[in-house]
């Protein structure tokens, strides 16, 4: 891919694939004297391993049902430095997190484990929330605070996928209520207004 080369490692599952992945990655990093760029975490033991092996990493993708406690999320947020993008798929059912997610770009699926302050108090540049349970009032609050600049001052891109029983027009009116917004019918580059 031009001047960059990306390698992906896939191993056949012979019953001990997680341990083989760890050993193979350690060996490859030693031979090429290069850190890994990203990791897809498919099992909780990989979380502790990556924190010890390489606590600063560009991309982390955590698959479904790997994280099943607030303690695990706290451990990730406190000990892992994700420099580019963090993706978290669905997780178990425990209390709601109120702490912000400390990574520059995040994609969160099934956003029911986090509340509104966890978004508002974040320093994220890119936020993608899929299958969110945020209400129209929550989304309106996010947009207002972003527009005012008191919260979300680093935010460059926001995407929220949510489901509602409201008609589309009513939904849009509630989300944009009391906002200073400009309709845009084309792509004119990076938006400067809501």
From TrEMBL:
It holds the Pfam family FBA_2. Residues 103-160 form the Sdz-33 F-box domain. InterPro entries: F-box_Sdz-33. It comes from the Eukaryota. PANTHER family: F-BOX ASSOCIATED DOMAIN-CONTAINING PROTEIN-RELATED, F-BOX-CONTAINING HYPOTHETICAL PROTEIN C.ELEGANS. This is Sdz-33 F-box domain-containing protein. It comes from Caenorhabditis nigoni.
């Amino acid at each position: 891919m031009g001047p960059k080369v990306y390698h992906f490692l896939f191993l056949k599952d012979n019953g001990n694939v997680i341990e083989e992945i760890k050993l193979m990655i350690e060996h490859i990093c030693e031979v090429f004297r290069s850190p890994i760029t990203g990791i897809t975490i498919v099992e909780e033991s990989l979380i502790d391993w990556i924190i010890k092996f390489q606590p600063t990493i560009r991309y982390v993708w955590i698959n479904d049902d790997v994280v099943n406690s607030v303690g695990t999320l706290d451990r990730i947020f406190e000990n892992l430095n994700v420099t580019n993008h963090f993706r978290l798929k669905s997780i178990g059912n425990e209390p709601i997190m109120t702490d912000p997610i400390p990574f520059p770009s995040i994609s969160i699926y099934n956003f029911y484990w986090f509340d509104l302050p966890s978004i508002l108090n974040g320093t994220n540049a890119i936020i993608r929330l899929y299958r969110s349970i945020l209400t129209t009032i929550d989304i309106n609050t996010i947009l207002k605070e972003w527009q005012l600049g008191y919260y979300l001052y680093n935010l460059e891109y926001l995407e929220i996928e949510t489901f509602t029983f409201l008609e589309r027009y009513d939904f849009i009116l509630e989300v944009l209520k009391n906002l200073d917004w400009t309709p845009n019918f084309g792509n004119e580059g990076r938006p400067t207004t809501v």
